Amino acid sequence: MYMIEAVIRPEKLDDVKEALDEAGYPGMTVIHVKGRGRQRGIVHRYRDEEYRTDLLDKILLKVAVPTEDDVEKVIDVICEHAKTGRPGDGMIFVIPLEDAVRARTGERGDDALSTEE
Length: 117
Description:
Layout: E1 2-8, H1 13-22, E2 29-35, E3 42-46, E4 49-53, E5 56-65, H2 68-82, E6 91-96, H3 110-113
Antiparallel strand pairs: 1-5, 1-6, 2-5, 3-4
């Protein structure tokens, strides 16, 4: 099992969410965060003055999947739908999961990640 954590632009959330749902991955956690990458924020100009915003609004999207094949599919979907081609499109991290438990039923492992009722 794996946890995929993707940091994406807030304006791309709906596109990514709908695409993941259509691809068969409806379960996700969405967290509003602030952060920066290599671009170290952005520079604004106002009345000939410059100021830097170094922490930008981002979305942290978490998706748990049972197999490596699912990891690749989810990564492909996120990359395709989160991409603008400009700096700041985000990052995707893949983390091994030791276990998962569905609180309602007590199901564990891959059964807890199943989308079937």
